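Shall we go through a protein fold together, starting from nothing but its sequence? Label the sequence line and the structure token line clearly, so we can match residues to local backbone shapes. Would you write everything just below, so we can both look at the same thing?
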Amino acid sequence: MSAFMPHLILREVFTYISAEDSFMALSTLHSCMLVNHHWCSVAIKVFWFKPFRHRSPLLIHTLLYSLSSSERDAITLVQDISLPPISHKPYYDYPLYLRDLDYWAFTKSIKAYIARMTRLTTRDDDSTTLNGVRNRMRDARKEYEDLCYVMSSEIIKMFIRKGVKLYYLRVLTWEDQLDTDEYLLLLKPESHSLISSIRELELASCYQKSIFLSTLAKICCNIRSMHLTLANWSSPEDDGKSEMLGLAELVKAQKSLRRIQFWTFKHYGANVEYVLDAIQTQAESITEMGFYDVNFTATKSLDGIAACYNLEQLTFKGCDLNDNVASPLVRADFPRLNKVEVCPCHNNGLKEWAAWRNLNISFRNRGNLSAGRTSR
């Protein structure tokens, strides 16, 4: 039997390992790279398909080898930080394999790399005074933030220069505002070619995100799957209207959205209606929809969901509902619906409807299941 394992089989094995997204999986892939040149050539591509699953300054160190001279100069102009020697070119062009980017892990990796490569040291006599220490710490902090921003910018420029196109984008943060320069950097006009091809989007944020959402809507129109955890904890007087309008823009901009999940939309009140209305624009393409900890009590009805006649899966868990709001779902016709999960806080009628649909699901292609339901 030949000891050589075909490329396609190796790729399937490594992809299966990579799907776990754990440190052990990363370690295993790294070990596979060391077996021989053939294994390495396959494992490298799988590993760098989505390298930023965790914070890793070593990944940034590797990417810095691919910077051009002008990109390196832009970084060292901010601070004379030590960068990998330009004469040492990597054997593989790692950025070319990047398709899945966790932007939060990417930025945290850059910050970890800079923290490792720089040290705060006293440089003048007035640093021994209290005001001197404060001034120097303030200047050092500003220099650090500028360096983080510029390094992020230059690496993104390198991605664009090499023609990288992302298919999956994750921006998961509970501590930052999406509308800050750090995150809006990803949406600058010169970055459009990098993210315009995104097919899967995952966002999680609590604070100021309306600009991020509305700007993303102008760039990405081919998203097929959205996983949105957008809590509104900014301030008591902020009802999140601008954020829901931005999200509505993003939903409407899509050409063929198939799957969408909403998490922790508890504090948006009636403004959720903007998103529900936007969902109707995707009625023909959406097949899976899930709502988790969403408050619908302030909305008028779920007509936007009822309009999605091609739904195959529908989930309500931990949602606040009432019979009037949910009534459009009970009356609607979903000929393809084959999976319903309902655990709302206050809607026995919807529970009964879901149970009834599951009991009669084998008859879904025989016309309406009830005279009270409308035909399409």
Remarks:
- Residues 130-161 form the longest helix (32 residues).
- The chain has a mean pLDDT of 81.
- Strands lie at 100-102, 168-172, 200-205, 225-230, 259-263, 288-292, 313-317, 339-343.
- The radius of gyration is 25 Å.
